Every structure is written in structure tokens, then in C-alpha cells.
UniProtKB/TrEMBL annotation, chain A:
GO terms for cellular component: endomembrane system; plasma membrane. It comes from the Bacteria. The lineage of its organism: Bacteria, Pseudomonadati, Calditrichota, Calditrichia, Calditrichales. It is found in: Cell membrane; Endomembrane system; Membrane. Belongs to the complex I subunit 2 family. One of its GO terms (molecular function) is NADH dehydrogenase (quinone) (non-electrogenic) activity. Its EC number is 7.1.1.-. This is NADH-quinone oxidoreductase subunit N. Pfam families: Proton_antipo_M (PF00361). Coiled coil: none annotated. The gene is nuoN. NDH-1 shuttles electrons from NADH, via FMN and iron-sulfur (Fe-S) centers, to quinones in the respiratory chain. The immediate electron acceptor for the enzyme in this species is believed to be ubiquinone. Couples the redox reaction to proton translocation (for every two electrons transferred, four hydrogen ions are translocated across the cytoplasmic membrane), and thus conserves the redox energy in a proton gradient.
From TrEMBL, chain B:
This is NADH-quinone oxidoreductase subunit A. Keywords: Cell membrane, Membrane, NAD, Quinone, Translocase, Transmembrane, Transmembrane helix, Transport, Ubiquinone. The gene is nuoA. The keyword Ion transport does not apply. Pfam families: Oxidored_q4. Belongs to the complex I subunit 3 family. NDH-1 shuttles electrons from NADH, via FMN and iron-sulfur (Fe-S) centers, to quinones in the respiratory chain. The immediate electron acceptor for the enzyme in this species is believed to be ubiquinone. Couples the redox reaction to proton translocation (for every two electrons transferred, four hydrogen ions are translocated across the cytoplasmic membrane), and thus conserves the redox energy in a proton gradient. It catalyses: a quinone + NADH + 5 H(+)(in) = a quinol + NAD(+) + 4 H(+)(out).
Length: 489, 132
């Protein structure tokens, strides 16, 4: 589709661009005590962007801007997810960053980047959108300018990001050399017709995995995660662990279904590899490594944010496990898990954000007896942690059931067994936090006052976590309907 | 694939020539040391003072702002060349582009980043350190 005609399919992104500019200008006219208006405007802009994206379900899938981006229901699903995760982050950030308009504008820019990232159809767009999300993320990680740890987080994120993006771009150059195209669909066709040497293709794919793996925190590209998660402001940590990661997984799926594989004749969403390389085996090893390393490292953490950081690595491992068998079932399972993960992980981080200023500490040891000092908050955290473990009747359980069943259906039994064993290991450190909160007597018995605002937002995250554990049918139907990938220039 | 061997050949020959020139200059150069040789080269001027001085970090901000508008001009040259063929459409497109950059200009202006001495510096945390 030509550039001008594409604009009508690009309205959510155009709207976000305009609202970014408007909020910057509006903020300049606001008085100091009214600065919070820009936060509300951001929330409103995200809501409208969500609604506009939702409307796009009516459009038939198409490629826009001469094949640079595609608009299909898979992309729309992740656009809504990205906008929704940013919306919750705006509310999570409100107590800490009340009057920081720049902060909210940066969040909107990341959202715009994420919108483009899930729609890419060209190697150049992958680079551009990843940098758009990445560069703003580095700024957000270091948003507490006078906090040394925050600065350290920003610098480490930047250095890792620069290195892995460089490696990925090098991989792209190989792909371009082999096929002569940058458009993902044309690359797929060229790979099928030209049959380049499998070894060369394998090396190129591994190089690209470095960049994609860094974005979703896959082992061995996970080294930045614990430090960045610990040093960044808590709302930003929560954001990194859900929004950019979910769209990273979407990009990963897009990469798997175009460059690595093509739709097979056996079924609508079965894929066969363009060139037979041992990629599923490699991904299986990486998935097991990711979840094992994440879980084992989490066992010995003393800081709750670091613990959640390592648990985030482990959860990427579970999602990668389903991507090993990338067929329709697995992709739906991953998409559903992304929704579930959004609620439970935001919930856990929101409780940390609520409790940290009261306890003035992020150490797990200081959570001793929280069940007696702030009963509701502690119970909510327990539910979120149980959900992260995958214990019924929480949403995390259903999410994991779909992931594991997708893997078992394709006879990857060993992989599924290792995944279940990992879930058992993760029970230890999640349950340890719960034990500290409820079974250990606190030294001082003062009740902790939790503001109403915090309680309401906790409920907002808690209800879906519980309800999706019992009645998930509408969500899974919505997810299945959203599985529509467009292949074309 | 043949094109890639040419690139490899180019790379190897490039490395070789760099090595050869280094060896030749090593053989031909005369080695005399005199005091001027150890002074940093500043286009023939004698350097004054230390190289390790503090300078105003507002240079960076001014440089950043300059860079943005420098790139804007860069984009305007090709636009001006094709302006006749695209007409009104090109005009509107460039208008949008310039407006987006103008928002940035308004922002830095309102925040006082165009003043050489930024008004109301927030140096409270520095003042404390001096007292301690």
C-alpha cells in the first residue's frame, strides 16, 4: 500500500504522536501544583489509543508503507496489550512521579515504539523500533538522576543494549547478503527459492537471537536484568518486566514465522522451517537454561526487586519453551500467558511499590510479619506470588497449563518435565516470601496504613488474577481470534 | 556468493597494506627526541595550561539542540529539490516535520535551556556538600 493510503490504517500511532506533542506543550502552561494533569492526559491518550487499536480489528490484514509494517490481528492484540500495560504503569507511577510530565511523555514515546515493534515487516523497521523502545528505556532506567544505582542501571542497560543491537545488525547484514532483501516476506521467499548454505543461515540467526534475546532477557543475554531491575525506579522496573518484554516476544514470534519458518501446507498455523537448521533444539536448550538459571539465582536473593527480576527471567524461559514448537497453539498460549503475566507481575511490583516507602527497605527480611501489619496487602502479594508460581485457582496456573499442553502435544516431553521441575523450584522462593510475611512474628506490631488509592489499584490487578484462574474462556477466545498473521509485501 | 569473496579479499589486502606502510615508516623514520615532540599538537600554537580542565556542561545541551536543527536542515535539502514534483503534499509534510521540531524548540526555550546561564539553578544538594 502506498504511503498516503497507509495513513488511515495508522491512526493509533498518529494519535499517540500528536498527544505526545500536545502533552509537552500543555505541561509548559501548567502551574507547579497542577502538573498532575499531564499524567491524566497521558492516561486518557493511552485509553483512546487502545480504543482506536481495538477498532482496527475490522480491517482486513494489510501491509502498510510499501511493506515496511503490517497490520494484522496479531499486531493489534499486542498493541492493545502494550497500551494497557503502559496505562497501568501510569497509575502505578502516580504516587512517586506526580508532577513529572517528561516522565509520562517518555512512557508515551516507548508505547509508540512498542506499537511499531509489533507491526514490523522489514529488517530496518526491527532495528528502528527496537532502538526507539531501547533509547527511551535507558533514559527511564536512570530517571532518578541523583540515585547512583539508577545511574548504574541506565549505563549498564545502555552498554548491553548497544552491544547486542550491534550483533543483531551484523546478523541482519548476513541475511541481506544471502537474500538481497530487507522485507521479511521477500526474505522468506528468497530463502525458499535460493536455498543458501544452512551453516551460514544458522550463524546469521544466532547473531540475530543475540539482539532479540537481550530484549526479552533470555539467557545468556540476561546479565543486565538484575542490576537494571534493582536500580531503576520500581514503576519502571515493573514496566520493563511486562510491556517491552511482551512486544519483544511478539517480535520474536514475527521473526520465527517469517525468517526462520513459513506456513506449512498441513494446517493454517503450522510452520515448517525455511532451511532446516537445528533451531528448535537450540531454542529448547536456551529455554531450559533461561528458566533454570532464573530460578536458581532467585533462590538466594535478599532484595525483593532482584528476586522479581530473576523470576522475570524464569518466566521468559516458560514462554520460550512454547516458542520451541511454534505452531498456532503455542503462539496462542504465549499470547494468553502475556495477558496473565501482565496482571500478576504488575500486582507483585505494585505491592512492592506500596510497601517500600512504609518499610523504607526492599529487603525480604524486612517483610517479616507483614501479614499482621498490613493484612490485605500481604494477602494480595501472596496471591500474586502464588499466581507467578502457577498454583490453582490463580491465572498463572491456567497460563502455564496452556504453555505446557502446547509443548506436550508436540511430544517435547523432556522439555515439559524440565519446565514443571522448574516451577517446583520457583515455589520455594515465592513461598519463602509468603512464609516470612505470615509465619514469622514481627518485631514491631504497628499497623501499616495503606492509602485507599493503593488498595483500589491492588483490587484492579487482583480481580483479573483470580477470575482468570476460574473463568478464562472469554480471554482465551479473544486471544484465539487475535491469532492472525499476515504474510505479504 | 562470489561478491563475498571479493569483500574478504578487500579486507585482507586492506590489512596487509596497513601492515606494510607501518613497517616502511618504521624502517625509514629517523628517531630523534626533543622537548617539543612531547607537547600536545594544537595546530602549531603552544598549548597553555592543563588539558584536564572543567568546562561548562551546558556546551552539551547547546550542542544537542544544535544537532537537532542541523539534521532538520539536512532533511530540507532533498525536500527542496523534489518540491516541484510533489507540490502541496510535500509542503504539508515538511510543515508537520517542522512543527514537531518547533515543539521541541518551545520546550527547551520554556525550560530555560537557551539561556547561557540557566535561570534558577537547582544546586541545593551541592550547597549542602560544601558546608559538610
Amino acid at each position: 500500500m502506498s504511503n498516503l493510503n497507509s495513513l488511515q490504517y495508522f491512526i493509533p500511532e498518529l494519535f499517540l504522536t500528536v498527544s505526545i506533542l500536545v502533552i509537552i506543550i500543555v505541561d509548559l502552561f501548567l502551574k507547579k501544583e497542577k502538573k498532575v494533569v499531564s499524567a491524566y492526559l497521558t492516561a486518557l491518550a493511552l485509553l483512546v489509543a487502545m480504543a482506536l487499536s481495538f477498532q482496527q480489528y475490522n480491517f482486513s490484514p494489510a501491509s502498510l508503507f510499501e511493506g515496511m509494517v503490517v497490520l494484522d490481528s496479531f499486531a493489534i492484540f499486542f498493541k492493545i496489550l502494550a497500551a494497557f500495560s503502559t496505562l497501568i504503569i501510569v497509575f502505578i507511577s502516580l504516587p512517586t512521579f506526580r508532577d513529572k510530565a517528561e516522565y509520562y511523555v517518555l512512557l508515551l514515546v516507548v508505547t509508540l515504539g512498542m506499537f511499531i515493534m509489533v507491526q514490523v515487516n522489514d529488517l530496518l523497521m526491527i532495528l528502528l523500533s527496537m532502538e526507539m523502545v531501547g533509547v527511551i528505556s535507558y533514559v527511564l532506567a536512570g530517571y532518578n538522576k541523583k540515585n547512583l544505582k539508577s545511574n548504574e542501571a541506565s549505563l549498564k542497560y545502555l552498554l548491553f543494549g548497544a552491544a547486542s543491537t550491534g550483533v543483531m545488525a551484523f546478523g541482519f547484514s548476513y541475511i541481506y547478503g544471502m537474500t538481497g532483501h530487507t522485507n521479511l516476506y521477500l526474505i522468506q521467499q528468497a530463502l525458499l527459492n535460493n536455498n543458501p548454505h544452512p551453516l551460514a543461515f544458522f550463524i546469521a540467526v544466532v547473531l540475530i537471537l543475540a539482539g532479540l534475546g537481550y530484549k526479552i532477557a533470555m539467557v545468556p543475554f540476561h546479565f543486565w536484568v538484575p542490576d537494571v531491575y534493582e536500580g531503576s525506579p520500581t514503576p519502571i522496573t515493573a514496566f520493563f518486566s511486562v510491556g517491552p518484554k511482551a512486544v519483544g516476544v511478539a517480535l520474536f514470534i514475527r521473526f520465527l514465522t517469517t525468517i526462520v519458518a513459513h506456513p506449512a501446507s498441513t494446517g493454517l498455523y503450522d510452520f515448517t522451517q525455511n532451511i532446516p537448521i537445528k533451531l528448535p533444539e537450540l531454542l529448547a536448550v536456551l529455554a531450559v537454561l533461561t528458566m533454570t538459571l532464573g530460578n536458581l539465582s532467585a533462590l538466594q536473593q535478599k532484595n525483593i526487586k532482584r528476586l522479581l527480576g530473576y523470576s522475570a527471567i524464569a518466566h521468559v524461559g516458560y514462554m520460550l519453551m512454547a516458542l520451541v514448537v511454534f505452531n498456532g497453539n503455542a503462539i496462542v498460549a504465549v499470547m494468553f500467558y502475556a495477558i496473565v503475566y501482565l496482571f500478576m507481575n504488575f500486582g507483585a511490583f505494585w505491592i512492592v511499590e506500596t510497601i517500600t516507602p512504609k518499610l523504607k527497605s526492599e529487603r525480604i527480611a524486612d517483610y517479616t510479619g507483614l501479614g499482621y501489619r498490613a493484612p490485605f496487602t500481604a494477602v494480595a502479594l501472596a496471591v500474586f506470588l502464588f499466581s507467578l508460581t502457577g498454583i490453582p485457582p490463580t491465572a498463572g496456573f491456567i497460563g502455564k497449563v496452556y504453555l505446557f499442553s502446547a509443548v506436550i502435544k508436540e511430544q517435547w516431553y523432556l522439555l515439559a518435565v524440565l519446565g514443571v521441575l522448574n516451577s517446583v523450584v520457583s515455589l520455594y522462593y515465592y513461598a519463602y516470601v509468603i512464609k516470612v510475611m505470615f509465619l514469622n512474628q514481627p518485631e514491631n506490631n504497628d499497623l501499616i496504613e495503606v492509602p485507599l488509592y493503593n488498595k483500589v489499584l491492588t483490587w484492579v490487578l487482583l480481580i483479573p488474577t483470580l477470575v482468570m484462574g476460574l473463568y478464562w474462556n472469554p480471554v482465551i477466545t479473544f486471544t484465539e481470534n487475535s491469532l492472525g498473521l499476515f504474510f505479504g509485501k | 556468493m562470489v561478491a563475498f569473496y571479493i569483500v574478504l579479499l578487500f579486507f585482507l589486502i586492506g590489512m596487509l597494506i596497513v601492515g606494510i606502510t607501518l613497517v616502511i615508516s618504521r624502517i625509514l623514520q629517523s628517531r630523534k627526541s626533543y622537548p617539543e615532540k612531547y607537547i600536545p599538537y594544537e595546530c602549531g600554537e603552544l598549548p597553555q595550561g592543563e588539558a584536564w580542565i572543567q568546562f561548562n556542561n551546558r556546551f552539551y545541551i547547546i550542542a544537542l539542540i544544535f544537532l537537532i536543527f542541523d539534521v532538520e536542515i539536512l532533511f530540507m535539502f532533498p525536500w527542496a529539490v523534489v518540491f516541484d514534483t510533489f507540490g502541496m503534499l510535500a509542503f504539508i509534510e515538511m510543515l508537520i516535520f517542522v512543527v514537531i521540531l518547533l515543539v521541541g524548540l518551545a520546550y527547551v526555550w520554556a525550560k530555560g535551556d537557551l539561556e547561557w546561564v540557566k535561570p534558577k539553578p537547582k544546586l541545593a544538594h551541592l550547597a549542602k556538600k560544601k558546608g559538610a
